[in-house]
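[User] I wish I could look at a protein chain and see how it folds. I have put the entry right below:
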Amino acid sequence: MVGSGDPMWIGKRCAQGKTMGAERVEKDVVFATATTGAAASKRLFTVTGCVALTVVALCTTDLVAAVGGATLEVGLTGATAVLIAQTTAENIDADEVWSAAAPATKYAAITDLIPVWYIVNTGIHVLYTVATQAVATGAIKFICFWEPISEDGYVEAAGVNAAA
């Protein structure tokens, strides 16, 4: 029997505002040479307040560089490779999990993902950086798992081709 002080759970939230498990937000990036695939940093997720977060990248279409040697990394404002280390873009293929500098694979050990949670405050955002050469084509689904630290902590997907 549930006592009168126990929270009533509906889905992952209860009436008192508590949650079970991390929140999540997704962003699909379809690379194109002159825009989303251009050599630059682009914002993936916008952070408000203070949150703890991590990012997983799932390739949905093989990445192809405009000219060989394009690299890709995922990080935070001021630390562009802290979440997923830089790797050669053409080593990221459809149906692979990209989680490290090594070429992506069809699976990733969960122990490889657990330590990569960061506490992030307002003004620091999650971004991807294309370096060396542009990425001409391909697509990746980026998934950000996050937990609010401050009362106003929140993460949302940035607009298409949003500047870092």
